[in-house]
Every structure is written in structure tokens, then in C-alpha cells.
Amino acid sequence: MDRRPVDVRDTYDRIAGHFAETREYPWPEVESFVEDAPRSEVALDLGCGNGRHAELLAAHTDRVLACDISRGLLATARSRLSERNIDADLLQGDAGAVPLADDSVGLAVYVATLHHLPTGDARLASLDELARVLSTGAPGLVSAWSTAHDRFDAGEGFDTTVDWTLPGGETVPRFYHVYSPDEFESDLAESDLGVRSAFVSSGNCYAVVEGA
Questions:
Q1: Does the first or last residue of the chain, that is N or C, have fewer Cβ atoms within 10 Å of its Cβ?
Q2: Pairing outcome for strands 204-210 and 194-201
Q3: How far, CA to CA in Å, does 88 sit from each of 12, 42, 51, 62, 79?
Q4: CA–CA gap between residue 83 and residue 150 (Å, rounded)
Q5: Please, what are the domains in the chain?
Q6: What is the model's pTM?
Q7: What pLDDT is attached to residue 6?
Q8: Distance (Å, rounded) from C-alpha 153 to C-alpha 143?
Q9: Could you say which residues of the chain have pLDDT below 70?
Q10: Which of 131, 188, 182 shows the shortest CA–CA distance to 157?
Q11: Which sign, positive or negative, has the C-alpha torsion 77, 78, 80, 86?
Q12: For the CA atoms of the chain, what is the radius of gyration?
């Protein structure tokens, strides 16, 4: 199933509007994490997409930072948050080079984004970046697509592409690294993040982490 990686920014700029329409509600795992987290002054939605999780964070923090590499997705997030009268700072940035200062975030979600980074080094660098911007002991939630999903029959992580079909019928390939749970936990252990817990839910690997 290995296929050549595609550019994440270009991919999501092309499909941003249609993709955003299909992502209306926050995932329940993210809702549970945010509801259980202590209130913070600054929260980060890294890989924010259309802002659905930034909207969730807004009720638990004084300031929301929503970061994505795709300008198209940031435009959809701006529209969504504006319609709901939610104030957030939108930032264009790479998850491997987050445009924030060290120890500047008290709460973070990094959901459904890690698996789009095309190399193991890039994925590990992004986990280290999350550790860098999180304050010591501040909680974060990380997720990635898992081999435990019922559409896969694989024991080890692998690279693949999954087509997104636009309304006119055009297909746009999206790169994924599908993690095995063991590989996911291994990358987390190798990173600068502290790991509180790791689990699999709805075909995704999750981990509750903290700034070191």
C-alpha cells in the first residue's frame, strides 16, 4: 500500500471548502479530554482544520490559538468561528515548526494531523514541537489513524494515500501514515513529551501527554 507522499498544504488547500463541510462536530474523545482539563490562559489547536476543536477549547481558556498549514482551511475556520462569535488567533504554520514561544501554551489538542506528515523524522519533530510550546505539566491530546481501524488488516504501521472525492468527481490523494498502537507509543516515548496515558478509540490512536 506504500505510495508516494503528497504535499499536505497543497492537498488541503484544494479540498478545504468541501472538507470543512464534512467536519461539523468535535470528536467525543476530544470533548472528554477538554472537559476534564483544567482551565488555561492559552490553548492551542494544532492542525485546526475548520476550527471545530478550537470552538470547543474557547469555553475552557482565555485565548485560543488555531494553527494549520493550509490557508484554505484557516479561511474555513475563520468563517466558522466568526459566525459563532468566537474570538481566536489564527496562525499559518507547520506542525514541525510551530510559530509560538517556548512554554506558551497551557492546553493543546493535536488531532488527526500527525498521520499526514510524510516521514518518521517529521512526525517526531512535530511531537517535540508540541512539547516545546506546552508549559511544564500542561496537558495535550494527540491522535493519529491506527491499524486498529476496521478498514485495515495490518499489524505494523504503513504509509498509504486515501483519495478525497470533490463534488464534481475530482479525486485528490491525501497522504497518511497509519500507526500501529505500539509504534505510536514508541514515537511518543522517543519524543520530548511526557505521556500520561495512551489508548485506541474509534480506529484512532490517542495519547494524553504533557509538557516536559
A1: N
A2: antiparallel
A3: 21, 10, 9, 10, 11
A4: 36
A5: 8-210 (3.40.50.150)
A6: 0.95
A7: 59
A8: 20
A9: 1-6
A10: 182
A11: positive
A12: 16
